[in-house]
């Protein structure tokens, strides 16, 4: 996949939550994709491989049907077996340099909380960096608050795309993009919305208005 093609798909980036009902997760993702979400990341930190692979295969199918990017958090094995477009790793997960060198066809994202971490991710071959938490969030208990200033500094420091994550609402999306982000990553604002399709469409309308 050409960089321009997948970079544009980082614009509205949905990250799944840890709710136990896989059918519910898939239904929400399907609605969000119908609303225009351009990327889906499967994030299941506490899940066994077998059940997670089954869910990954379903989300891969849904993302493909809507022309969206499909990323798996941390689990390289699940990403490869499900035919995902890429894998996203944190600072203590698999080394981005090793993943990229062994599997150059994968889109590799790295979480960063500072300019130094973003620069290192680029040096290691990462294709994009997820910066945050931009705002306070209850989704990830150990999230470090970075704010818009760090996001903007990361954007100036690297040439690869930047995705803002953490506490981003529709109302805050424009500020995140104005700070330099190429996309916004969202969890609860869509996953916990009463109408995930409408919530996704609201993000799409707000973010693509700023292109």
Automatic annotation (TrEMBL):
Enzyme class (EC, first level): transferase
Positions annotated to bind 4-amino-2-methyl-5-(diphosphooxymethyl)pyrimidine: 41-45, 73, 111, 140
Reactions catalysed according to its record: 2-(2-carboxy-4-methylthiazol-5-yl)ethyl phosphate + 4-amino-2-methyl-5-(diphosphooxymethyl)pyrimidine + 2 H(+) = thiamine phosphate + CO2 + diphosphate; 4-methyl-5-(2-phosphooxyethyl)-thiazole + 4-amino-2-methyl-5-(diphosphooxymethyl)pyrimidine + H(+) = thiamine phosphate + diphosphate; 2-[(2R,5Z)-2-carboxy-4-methylthiazol-5(2H)-ylidene]ethyl phosphate + 4-amino-2-methyl-5-(diphosphooxymethyl)pyrimidine + 2 H(+) = thiamine phosphate + CO2 + diphosphate
Domain of life: Bacteria
Gene3D superfamilies per UniProt: Aldolase class I
Protein's pathway: Cofactor biosynthesis; thiamine diphosphate biosynthesis; thiamine phosphate from 4-amino-2-methyl-5-diphosphomethylpyrimidine and 4-methyl-5-(2-phosphoethyl)-thiazole: step 1/1
GO terms, molecular function: thiamine-phosphate diphosphorylase activity
Cited InterPro entries: Aldolase_TIM, ThiamineP_synth_sf, ThiamineP_synth_TenI, TMP_synthase
Family label: Belongs to the thiamine-phosphate synthase family.
UniProt name for this protein: Thiamine-phosphate synthase
Gene: thiE
